[in-house]
Records
---
Amino acid sequence: MLENVVSVWEGWSCPVPLITGMVIMRPIRHDLMLTIASVVAMAGLMGLLFDSFLQAQEYPADITRGKGVYERHCQACHGVAGWGDGPDAQALKVPPANFHRFLSFLKSDEELLRTIEHGVVFSPMHAWRGQLTDGEMQDVVAYIRLLSQQGR
Ligand code: HEC
């Protein structure tokens, strides 16, 4: 008799709170997941935005070398301060990139590096692979980053 009561009790007691719990928890869990997802997404976005800053600051010494490379090879088109207004710029059909543009600023170091390495098709910006070493290209990106953060 007692066994029967216990077994009935056990049979009922388990699923009822479980189901009630699931029903109550479901919207909370959904909200929690959304919050976690948005926090993760925000962190990712912030990371993307500040990634370039951090990387540029990690190797301050190489910026000096990057400046040398820039003055020798890039300044004539991109201008002393990177506004795309170098002396050779007027003669070009496609204007040199202005590194202060938001569009340029938002690009990752890797993207800029790829452009320098391979050039831009149908534009005076040719590939520098072969003329510059990997290190020189990385240094010049760091220098471009520095320029793009400076005002006129
Ligand atoms: C003959 C002129 C010229 C020279 C020299 C030159 N560039 Fe360019 N560069 C350009 C032009 C033009 C563009 C824009 C191409 C386009 O947008 O279609 C450009 C684009 C770029 C971009 C892409 C920017 C962006 O926002 O996507 C980078 C980075 C760049 N140049 C770096 C360099 C570096 C570094 C050097 C020197 C090693 C250099 N350039 C030398 C003409 C030049």
---
Amino acid sequence: MGSDGRLAPADTLIKPYQSSRHSRTNRELGGDEARRVPSPALVRRVPVASPGVELAEAVRRRRMVRGFSGAAPAPEVLESLLDLARRAPSAGNSQGWDAVVLKGAEQTNPFWEATTTAQWRAHSARWPGLRRAPVVVAFFSHPGAYTARYREPDKASSGLGAGHDAWPVPYWDTDAAMAVMILLLGAVDAGLGACFLGNFRGEEQLRTAIGVPADRRYLGAVLLGEGGGADPPSISSSRPRRSSSEVFHRGGW
Ligand SMILES: Cc1cc2nc3c(=O)[nH]c(=O)nc-3n(C[C@H](O)[C@H](O)[C@H](O)COP(=O)(O)O)c2cc1C
């Protein structure tokens, strides 16, 4: 649907569930499910970077990859993943996050120098595999974009324009994290390895090294590239996944 409420031209539309990655047609889906499938005329064309996998499969298959071969993703694949991340939902559609894309050792070295210590690099079994990540996408949230957005007339009654302390939840970080998740799943879809590294040290050094404005907060970074080489398992990822009945409190806690 165009911004004026009319349907987009036919050449910008796809028929859902009829490509190789969406093999089910409306007719194959029975009952309620068939009714939930949007009319082909209402679905916009989505750029596809790769043969792709189904979403549920991508979610199940995703694991943090901490060993990279060093081979860089094709530029068009990287751009397509970044474009997907840009489509993340955000509170009030504030879109208050930015990401710095670092490619190749010359650009990624300052990232590692800021966020890790020489001692860790000398002793970590994971360092050799991590350092070969050909792309590092460092995410920054912008709290000021949210307070400004929530001072606009349609949001002003929320009181959230008053300042960051008025926010029960820092949605600037949440929204950046949603974009991170798209990138992680997109990497699976594109056949790439990816790992999110949290912000545990070096924010100021990183900010200075890559020229980030002072009002942005460093969330963490996604490493992207072809998986390969040693990838020693992390202690964290060996922890068992909590069961559905532990996580979901149906009908009340
Ligand atoms: C907010 C956040 C911060 C994380 N920081 C790191 C990190 O600094 N280093 C690391 O190796 N993994 C990091 N991880 C990855 C987690 O260890 C990993 O997601 C968890 O062990 C589950 O494993 P899986 O993602 O492979 O399923 C982080 C994950 C999240 C969500």
---
Amino acid sequence: MKKPPCPNASCSTTASVIHHGCYKTRSGKRRRYRCRSCGKTFCSTTATPYHRLHHQRSTFDQVAHLSVEGVNKSAIARLKRLSWNTVARWLEKAARCCRRFNHEQINELGVPEIQADEIRTIVGDKDSPVWVFTTLDVWSRLWPSTVVGRRSYRNTYALLKDTVSRMRPECFPLIVTDGFEYYAKVVWRLFGRACVYGQVIKTRRNDRIVKVERRRVIGATWRFEQALTQSEDSSKLNTSFIERLNLTIRQGSSYLYRRTICHARSKNRLEDQLELLRCYYNFVRSHRSLRRGRQAVTPAMQAGLTKRPLTLREIFSSRILPLSPNAIAHVFTGITAKLRLAA
Ligand SMILES: [Zn+2]
């Protein structure tokens, strides 16, 4: 078996690792390793969510899987015969791993068309609504970024800035959003005249859409026509793809069901759940509208990030490798904190 790299952040990934005896667990013997450069000993699960898990890894995977299929924590605890606190702790660990995985893996996107939208939900004492901002790369159906918070300029900027940081520098996409006031300001700040930006404004009456208005905000008419001709998915300005993603997100998180008693008790819990869901949506679950012959394709495969659908086991087994201080701020406290540092 290939020896795992040293999990010590100050060691290089090529540091020499040797076998260092064994230790016993309920399910048998496990090998220990020692790093020759820093002298630290570790096992194959060190720095993964499986470390010191007193259950089988498959149980951990099943708990994460049930959670991203929209089962709430109490139901998971009853189904798997675990305590609620164990389920909550495991999901927190899984989310931490997924946050890092998303951050490391979603990069260098060639994004010809972006759609952005928000989902309204409640957190904690239900007093003020919280919004889940999302973006979607339409061509690959990849969900690159998400931000949770108030419907403010700051959060809108954080969302699009994060999406832009994951794109190739030469990318100047077609962007479509709803009529929320800050999108136009943020898009202008990030791209200037280099992109094509339009809005789709829907007027509803008695829960029915009575009017759809399509506005060209940045870019001349011929540039819109050119962008839409090049697009494989859209023939006119629309937000259908992001609205479909929002539906998938609502189905995949028990916190976001409508009229639920299971709303998130804190913003961090909601963010954790969304990181887990984003990882599952992008890398694990195959997308029905993306197919290559008989092969099911995940958004990450379509975007060229992976060669095949991954499993939750593979994601959770991946090591937390050393990150730069900036990246650590980004990964572990969310992008809004990073903006605060930069200001
Ligand atoms: Zn080391």
---
Amino acid sequence: MKLFDVYPLFNIEIVKGKGCHVWDTEGTEYLDLYGGHAVISVGHSHPAFVLAITEQVNKLAFYSNSVINSLQQKLADKLGKASGYDDYALFLINTGAEANENALKLASFHNGKKRVIAFKHSFHGRTSAAVRVTDNPSIIAPVNEGLPVTYLPLNDPYLVETELKKGDVSSLIIEGIQGVGGIQVPSNEFMQSLRELCTQYNVCMIVDEIQSGYGRSGKFFAHQYAGIRPDIITVAKGIANGFPMGAVLISPMFKAVYGMLGTTFGGNHLACAAAIAVLDIMENEKLIENVNTVGNYLMGELRQLPGIKELRGRGLIIGIEFEESIKEVRSKLLFEEKVFTGVAGTNTIRLLPPLSLTLEEAEDFMKRFKKVHPSTL
Ligand SMILES: Cc1ncc(COP(=O)(O)O)c(C=O)c1O
């Protein structure tokens, strides 16, 4: 059987990881400034993470959501404390798309309405409702088209109010910082206006923190820079450092009803053990402080480089936009300088390293980056 060929692949196989480094089959070492799509939060194969999963799998990998799993409550307690949302409720699933799918559904159950406001250049996943609120027609199939969605530009509260006034909007979904869209940061004032407008017009405010959350921005959630509290927050990616997991944080205004949401694998024992280990490591190693220190260093250094059109982001979610295509820069970074980075569109490099990236590793990255930076090509 062949693999369904949907991924353009680099001709590299990664077989080992440690901290912010990975190794391929030839034993070549790479500096990982991408964390495998922002997934590696506490570092590859962190010993406490490995131990937690190993101990759990030796006891029990899975049992269904028809019996008590106290690891779920342990995770909820730790996540509530770490994020400042201990009055919210937690629903666990396996991916980011599922988190958004359930968030949109919950909002619609709650207020009985249907239309969704999403934003230009948004990315929320590839399942039915999640892909429909993603601003990329090429990945929306006819079967996904049922949900009515209006895409609006970021940072224009007037246009949002014009739509919300019509009375048929169930929810508004916005990324804490747009990731796939090129690290676009919504302004604090805009987030505050959205909060007010959603309350005024009985619209559920959903903030997708799947890429920008879990400490990556320098606060637990990126929206916390605006001092607001959304009705629903979705997370995935870094939550379990590579073990598939997603979660929905739900405000007390939503009433849970047996059967309204559900999943086979969500919140399984192994995923919970991984996610608990991640929060413990983040706390013990003060990783959010580290994100601020190392993120500020990288921003400061990058700002001094010539030829950058725009530098965007917060903490360790950084977009470096050039006037020209970055195809060659990125390829040289990977194949000559042995550094993994991401892209957005054709002109933006995305940095999404593990939150444990050290200052020395960041300096090492800058040295390698300067060698391939367009002005030196
Ligand atoms: C902001 C955002 N939302 C949702 C998703 C979808 O997550 P998943 O691929 O785990 O379904 C992603 C993935 O890149 C994302 O960046």
